[in-house]
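User: I need a structural model of Molybdopterin-dependent oxidoreductase from Streptantibioticus silvisoli for a docking pre-check later this week. Nothing fancy, just the predicted structure tokens so I can convert them on my end. Input:
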Amino acid sequence: MPPAAEFRVHGEAMRTVTLRVGELARWPSHRAEVTFSCLTSGAQHHVFTGPLLRDVLTTFCPGVRTARRKERSRLLVAVTGRDCHQAVVAWAETDPEFGNAPILLAATLDGRSLESGGCQLVVPGDACGARYVSSVTGIWIGAHAFAGPTRDPRDTATGDEPPAGPAWPARSGS
Ligand SMILES: Nc1nc2c(c(=O)[nH]1)N[C@H]1C(S)=C(S)[C@@H](COP(=O)(O)O)O[C@H]1N2
Ligand SMILES: [Mo]
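Assistant: Understood. Predicted structure tokens for Molybdopterin-dependent oxidoreductase:
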């Protein structure tokens, strides 16, 4: 048996954890049958199973559960493969209160375990294959940190958000 592939889940508001693909079985498994096109190899059709990316991230990054919508709206999830191929998913794409997309961290591909090769990001809505990052070694979550105004004064007037403290470090300049 080849050694099990490990990947790191880390970010700005959490402790770093290292997981094996087999440990993805602790979350409810979802199935995605997808077709995407690749510039070099044409149309690809695959069946993946694994947990929702958001279920894994909310487990280790509890701040994402309590963060206000306007904090969640600026979160990024960067996924890195063993070959350093990277793709970014906006947290909001997968958040039930925003895009609610069933983005997976797949533990099987076409019925085969990814335990030794590494898990794979699955973005079923994508027509192009570039974000189906395979052999995942790292998943990072954090806030977009451009140096701009930090607070829209209208934030306090909406009334639909609890006055919670920020879960992520404030942008520079605040
Ligand atoms: N780690 C890694 N994942 C990757 C890539 C890559 O170069 N490295 N290429 C992407 C691209 S461009 C495509 S089209 C799909 C191809 O997936 P397939 O080989 O299962 O058809 O993998 C994606 N995932
Ligand atoms: Mo591709």
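Before docking, keep this in mind: The CA atoms of residues 4 and 116 lie 5 Å apart.
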